[in-house]
């Protein structure tokens, strides 16, 4: 048991660290190649916090643990909204002014409904996995095109562009890019192996371990990004990290088990856990898009979100 805990903690720490270095190297290298900062901000920086979920999903799928991969995606999306935004909102009201976010949030809801339809029959097929990936590429293409051609300045795009490292030598950027690419799959494997060992000791299902320990662990980069964004008064970037990560998870990351290890899905994933993803995503949309002129997440919203997270985790372990 101690060895499994060590594997889990070491894997998690290495996963978060290597994801950060991967994004740092990739963003700096892309900037040195002359790519527009807005383009880099809307792609590499925006999706970088989902790198842990992507590599964990790939590792679990290659080992035949489809439910763990799916649980990681659903659990991460739930944790991002309830735990991460809950903690962040406690630091102070979070305001939203970005037009990009007002487009991405409805996209997140539509994508969630599509995934619900795919999971409804208890199977995730390779065709469905490929469809999710194609849809993700199409949505990203649209957002990038709109961001580059829009005449109006957007707070989210500008804040994301400011996060790109500048004046980094190309050799240094490539070094960290390679370090991240090597350590990400290794650390993901350590984390999955440790989590599986713990799950077996406590007789937890592959789905539950993905929804709990792994999901919370892979959401830590979002927590760091959100807290940093709020402290720097970059509220749109804080919310954007969550919405962008959830959109990336539900389309690109969930496509991985569909493509690598298609097959039957735990019935709870397509009912209890999907409904929780839909409910929390809908709640975020209501709070952000239908909250009048303010368009704010307030500290009391954070309290409600945290209570929701705790109640859901209790349900998973007691059911």
TrEMBL record:
Keyword Membrane applies: yes
Transmembrane region(s): 35-57, 69-93, 105-123, 130-148, 204-231, 237-262, 274-294, 300-318
GO CC terms, sorted: plasma membrane
Record key words, sorted: Membrane, Transmembrane, Transmembrane helix
Example GO BP: intracellular calcium ion homeostasis
Subcellular locations according to the entry: Membrane
Ranges where the Sodium/calcium exchanger membrane region domain occurs: 5-145, 173-317
Single Gene Ontology MF annotation: calcium, potassium:sodium antiporter activity
Topology with respect to the bilayer: Multi-pass membrane protein
Superkingdom of origin: Bacteria
Major location category of this protein: membrane
Designated name of the protein: Calcium/sodium antiporter
Originating species: Shewanella pneumatophori
């Amino acid at each position: 048991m101690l060895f499994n805990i060590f594997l889990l903690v070491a894997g998690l720490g290495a996963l978060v660290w290597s994801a950060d270095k991967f994004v740092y190297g990739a963003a700096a290298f892309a900037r040195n190649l002359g790519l527009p900062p807005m383009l880099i901000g809307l792609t590499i920086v925006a999706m970088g916090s989902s790198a842990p979920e992507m590599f964990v999903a790939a590792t679990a799928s290659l080992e035949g643990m489809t439910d763990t991969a799916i649980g990681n995606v659903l659990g991460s999306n739930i944790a991002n909204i309830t735990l991460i935004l809950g903690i962040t909102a406690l630091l102070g009201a979070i305001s939203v002014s970005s037009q990009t976010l007002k487009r991405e949030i409805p996209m997140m809801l539509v994508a969630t409904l599509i995934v619900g339809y795919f999971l409804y029959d208890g199977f995730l097929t390779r065709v469905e996995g490929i469809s999710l990936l194609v849809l993700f590429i199409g949505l990203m293409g649209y957002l990038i095109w709109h961001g580059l051609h829009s005449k109006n300045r957007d707070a989210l795009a500008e804040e994301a562009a400011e996060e790109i490292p500048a004046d980094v030598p190309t050799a240094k950027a490539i070094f960290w890019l390679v370090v991240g690419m090597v350590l990400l799959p290794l650390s993901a494997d350590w984390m999955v192996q440790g989590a599986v060992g713990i799950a077996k000791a406590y007789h937890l299902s592959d789905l539950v371990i993905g929804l709990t320990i792994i999901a919370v662990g892979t959401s830590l980069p979002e927590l760091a990004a959100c807290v940093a964004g709020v402290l720097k008064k970059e509220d749109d970037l804080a919310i954007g990290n969550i919405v962008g990560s959830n959109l990336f998870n539900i389309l690109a990351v969930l496509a991985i088990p569909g493509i690598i290890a298609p097959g039957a899905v735990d019935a709870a994933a397509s009912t209890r856990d999907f409904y929780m993803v839909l409910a929390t995503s809908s709640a975020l949309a209501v709070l952000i898009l239908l909250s009048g002129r303010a368009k704010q997440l307030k500290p009391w919203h954070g309290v409600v979100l945290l209570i929701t997270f705790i109640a859901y985790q209790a349900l998973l372990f007691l059911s």
